[in-house]
Amino acid sequence: MAPHPPMTAPTKTLETFENPSPERDYTIRMTIPEFTCLCPKTGQPDFATLHLEYVPDRACVELKSLKLYVWSYRDQGAFHEAVTNRILADLVAATAPRFMRLSAHFNVRGGITTTVVAEHRSSGWQAAAPVSLPP
């Protein structure tokens, strides 16, 4: 029996949905533990865990499209710094958030781990002061 073809395929298209609470600042946090791309110098695989945090404005990123988007990097050569900033730019273009931070924690290779953190802040947006609650 032949294997079934995948029901979905990698894509660079990020889908969004309307923010259900645009009147308030709130944070969405996602952990994406299975990011892979290729080293552009050696062709060896690079593995990373991506941590995405954002304060949406009018749109939120749809999770299945994000999964397929991340998958699209699997066979692409990219430096850690370039791929982190490209993903952030694509997410910002799709969602136009008030704030977004992408932290890419690349696994050890050659005795070195790399973390790249890239941020976007919409013009004029200011984070609320932290609230400290008693223990």
Tell me the strand percentage band: 35-45%
CATH architecture: 2-Layer Sandwich
Q: Any idea of the CATH class?
A: Alpha Beta
Look at the structure and give the mean pLDDT.
94
Overall SS class? alpha+beta
Tally of helical runs? 2
CATH fold description? GTP Cyclohydrolase I, domain 2
The order of strands across the largest sheet is 2-3-5-6
Short recap of the structure:
With 135 residues, the protein is α+β, with helices and mostly antiparallel strands. It has helices at residues 63-71, 80-95; strands at 16-18, 28-38, 45-55, 59-61, 99-109, 112-121. The model has no long low-confidence stretch (mean pLDDT 94).
Keywords:
alpha+beta; GTP Cyclohydrolase I, domain 2; four-stranded antiparallel β-sheet; 19% helix; 36% strand
